[in-house]
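Hi Y.,

Following your request, here is the sequence exactly as I used it, all 291 residues.
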Amino acid sequence: MFRGSMVAMVTPMHEDGAVDEAALERLVEFHVENGSDAIVAVGTTGESATLDYDEHCHVMRLVVRFARGRVPVIGGTGSNSTWEAIKLTRCAMEGGCDAALLVTPYYNKPTQEGLYQHYKAVAEAVPIPQILYNVPSRTAVDLVPETVERLSDIPNIVAIKETVGVDRVRELVDRCGERLDVYSGEDAHARGTIMGGGKGVISVTANVAPRQMHDMCVAALKGDWETAEAIDARLAALHSALFVESNPIPVKWAVNQLGLSGPTLRLPMTPLSEQHHETVRQALKLAGTME
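Below is the corresponding structure, written out as tokens. Let me know if you'd prefer a different format.
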């Protein structure tokens, strides 16, 4: 349904933790002007875990308003409560989002049948296009290809964001590539994902290097592997540096270094440790986003 570099955008905050709406609008403009192919509002990188329900819906609506139809908006609406996921997904649809991104239920560790029934219930309750999101390193549950294949028969389940690796991407493409788009959930795997038949990446790196990520995806989707590899090589250090501490700690610091928003995170996330500042700064310079 979507192609290219889809930014998992940070949620800017004032020093007291309130959402900074002016900075949010600046960020949306930054991504529109610099080629991001879609914006994911209030995903993991957008601190979905610490925004309450009203804030979550409000930020999704604001991003839709600020985007003004110039770029698709995908609302992050996953939860480990099926009821809450339905409620958030309905909010995304009513707020004008083009699709919803739903992480697998975390912490309570459902079975594969539980995962199937969870996603089926959300899809049947809310007719907006929906993107599955598998990130077992955070959720402690793996949405396996057999379950994804079952879910691909549900018409408004249109894609999956996969973080396990390029071999998993290839298996998903083989099993259900005609019915389901596959996106990388790891920037370092984005080029390999497209080479393996995927359609793009939901990207943390694009928060600070949107043009480069867009251009890399365009080249890869055209089969221009030499150009894609050259761009990706300049971004490799950034892909790594943005995970020297838990996401979104490093990327929130990096966005602040570019003057796009403040550095505030909500507890239990804390600011990037000083020992990592130079690592992230040098990666920004190598990527060409900072002088």
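The first strand starts at residue 4 and ends at 8.

Thanks again,
Q.
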